[in-house]
C-alpha cells in the first residue's frame, strides 16, 4: 500500500510538469471517469486535463491501474527530464543543405 502511495505522489509531481498539450494526450488516453466526459477536454486547458487525470487516479483500486498510467507517462517524463521538445510552427526549422 505504501508503495502505491509513493507511485501516486510521483505521478502527481509529474502531472504538474506537463504542458497543456501533454496533459491532454495523457487524459484522453485514460479510462472513462464517472461523472466526467473526456470529450469535453480542451487541448489548451491544462488545469481541466490534470483534474481529469487526478479524478481517474482517485478511482484506482489495483496496482495494475497505476502501472498502466506509469507506462503512459513514461515517455512524457523522459522528454521532461531530457529537455526534449516538439517543434512548433513558430520555431524556425533548420534547412537541409541537400543539392
Automatic annotation (TrEMBL):
The superkingdom listed in its UniProt entry is: Eukaryota
Q: Disordered: where is this region?
A: 79-99
Name the chain's protein.
Uncharacterized protein
Q: Tell me what organism the protein belongs to.
A: Dissostichus mawsoni
